[in-house]
Amino acid sequence: MSITVIYTILSLSALGVAAAIILYFVAQKFKVIEDPRIDEVEGMLPGANCGGCGFPGCRGFAEAMVKADDISNLNCPVSDATGMTAIATYLGHTANITEPQVAVVRCNGTCEFRPKVNHYDGAGSCAISAALYSGDTGCSYGCLGEGDCVAVCKFDAMYMDPVTGLPVIIEENCVACGACVKACPKDIIELRNVGKKSRRIFVSCVNKDKGGVAKKSCEVACIGCSKCFNVCPFEAITMANNLAYIDYNKCKLCRKCVEVCPTNAIHEINFPPRKPANVADITGGAKAEEKNA
Amino acid sequence: MLKTFKKGGVHPAENKLSAHAPIVTAELPKVAIIPMGQHIGAPASPLVQKGDEVKVGQLIAQSSGFVSANIHASVSGKVLKIDNAMDASGFSRQAVHITVDGDEWIDIIDRSPEIVKEIKATPEEIIKKVQEAGIVGLGGATFPSHIKLSVPPGKKAEVLLINGVECEPYLTADHRLMLEKGEEVLIGTKLLMMALGVTKAYVGIENNKPDAIGHLRDIAAAYDGIDIVPLKVKYPQGGEKQLIKAVINREVPSGALPIDVGAVVHNVGTAFAVYEAVQKNKPLFERVVTVTGKSVKNPSNFLVRIGTPTSQLIEAAGGVPEDTGKIVSGGPMMGKALKSLDVPIAKGSSGVLLFQDAEAGRRPVEPCIRCGKCVSVCPMGLEPYLLMTYSDKKMWEEAEHERTMDCIECGSCMYTCPADRPLLDYIRLGKSTVGNIIRTRKQ
Amino acid sequence: MDRLLHVAPSPHIAGEYSVKKIMFGVILALLPAFATSIYYFGMGALIVTLTAIISCVAFEYLIQKFILKTTPKISDGSAILTGLLLAFNVPSNLPIGIIIIGALVSIGIGKLSFGGLGQNPFNPALVGRVFLLISFPVQMTSWPVPKGFATGYADAITGATPLALVKEGVGNGEKISEMIGIPQHMELFYGHMGGSMGEVSAIALLLGFAFMLYRKIITWHIPVFLIGTIFAFTGILNLTNPEKFADPLFHILTGGVMLGAIFMATDMVTSPMNPKGMAVFAIGIGIITVLIRIFGAYPEGISFAILIMNAFVPIINRYIKPKRFGEEVKNGK
Hints:
By secondary structure, chain A is an alpha+beta fold. Chain A is built from 11 helices and 9 strands.
């Protein structure tokens, strides 16, 4: 009995030693020498693997950072300025600090403003709906409401509002990785600078139809009237294809355009509420415009 | 044993409600909306301007590329505007709107009812006339026909197949055409044979149209080299590759064209249009359209001018039934659901199908139970469940490797799926994405 | 018209199949076997079956509702089918408590832990059965002797299965032709033998097979290849030494071969997706079954064989592809 035990212990130990020796040599043979800085840089990155930088995951980005001689065009949208500066300093570069950005949804075509004209019954994907036809509302540019953007968001920064049928961005969570921008087949979502005190002004519409057509399909569409273009003192607004666009680098947040827009297509975010008198002015003005039109 | 293709296929309820309704000429519309993109390829570019007077048969838009086709006025009157209009594709695209005034045809069209049997044209002239007449595949694919007739150098056409299968349920336009215009169809076939330089043609007809088979057989006795081939009823036999397999038992390899196995396939409607273009000088501006549905009062077959609004045809068939839940342009398996009733009839519209509310919506999607029915019905031998997963997970390389580009979008997989999964929706998405990837790679 | 029209990509019609119809079709196909098991094993069969079905459905509902927090979907019939198949794979005198444990393992571990219907790699009913076989070997191998309606439940007289008799006999060096208590082939065909309650009657199971073929629920590939493989393999062995290896007909009619081939191996979720793959899968099961029966420790091995081949299904699906259209180029014919 005891001999069996001894044999067992001996043979198993021998087996273990042999395996260890083999493993040692194999490990030596197939050793991959990797720059240790890659691990360091990866540790400094947020580790979200969102792909917002254009590389496959944070490790891919870390490798690119370490290998690159010039890191000015490498940027992790999820890291803040201090994070990127820390990495740049570690690698002996100067950081390329970009203005922090956030995603905005440029469509306000809720069920109320933009009534449905048919019932989409295909697979629940914007990409499929967009390939099939121009959408279940009269507007062929607006949000399709199937939530491809929400599905790709890795930061829980988006949800579909069940009442409006539109995606909503939770600003605190949004890291501007741009995944939703790529996912949207209608190019509705845009990354814009966060702006001073997180205040932003943008045209919440991408409809390129002529004014009448746009207005007919959606009450809050940009009708290309150029009123905002004319009123803007900073030349931040451009008009193209019956559509106004506000350049966030030039916009000084004066809100004049918001006041003149006849369809309330221009949105202001995170501003303190206006004085009541002003509000009446705006809505009254908008109504007068409608009558004139 | 009747001939058919071997792999896969389904047999949906045929519902050929309008099989006994003779072709009726539809009334002229008040305003004809003629889309510029009625064919596969580049849209035609308009030659007319707002305010121009046009006659029936007049060229109003010129083919704008190698794969493109001419478009002719289908009505006479004044050009109202050239503006975007919703077409059957579901998108607003350029169209010529013509206010109808009378019915004045251009002079060269032979409007006499006699059948011109004698063929005077040379092969080159036939191809030229087909091209000028703007003829495209009228089975629904709308591929410009003259391209199929011009055999590329190094390849040889051996046999012409005329597709009278009409495997889509409900549709009867081709069936009625074969019954009422059988002689013309066969003359058209003869013209196509001459253009291709082949001596053998087969007209494939599914066995659920015994009257058409009998009728064409009687006439074909007088035509050398044209055989009528009855086929077993099975969808998608009207698919080009499936028809070739069924009739002459050759398989078109992946990525190749029918001409690579020596075959050229044309629809019976196309053959009829070729007859009219060559023998009667009549360009393609009208076609037979089936208007049908279980609740439709008078399921009918109309001879319709291109540009007639769908709503007018439905009125002529007894109006939109109260319980309509979905309107499809084309057949139930491959047709496009219409977003609005103002959509005009185009060259590729073979039918207008009105679904009752109860059958309009899709059933709720359930989890895949891996039954493999999609695999067993796929006529291309693909694995739809896998292609859908790859497409859903954005695994494009794998999808390409599993031959997603071979899919002919016949819909058999989705038709048969017990869990009602949107297989074809995702496969189409995969096809377009993989197609783009392949194109970028080639550049 | 004030209603909104539906718009969806083609196709716009759907066939008659649905998950529910398939599940209830299989359940219907199992009814002849259920009837014979009641005929042979009496009340016990009824008690076992009802317990298994009720507990499977209940576990499916409870786990989906309270643990997975999803909307319970018991109406598709898949839990009923799992319960029925589990019952068919156990002796008809199995204590109720053990059946409930088997149902919990089948549904909880075999099915829902993988994500529910369609996601499970192993046949849930077999997972439950094998779990019970290993955990409660005594109860799971005391087979009531078929006595017709007279058979009681807990007090049933038990005996060995023909396979166990042969195995034991051969193990003791006896000759098959001299063994006593081995049923005749016709008895086996009708199901007059000891065994799991649903597996005994070949004719009832074949009736179900015919029904499923007629309704196009399954294809013929798996059952035919599986039974054919066992027949061929045991036939060869039988030719080498008929006194040591039983004849092939005996092998396909005893034990769970019929039930396994027709109802367990053909489970859609856990079998390959195309005929070629199905053939490989079925031949694999056949070979492993015979190996276990002849050379293994257990007298019957089809449950293990099916579970082992279940594990190979993803690989089979990956490497054995259906023949694509256009692969055979026929030029100039």
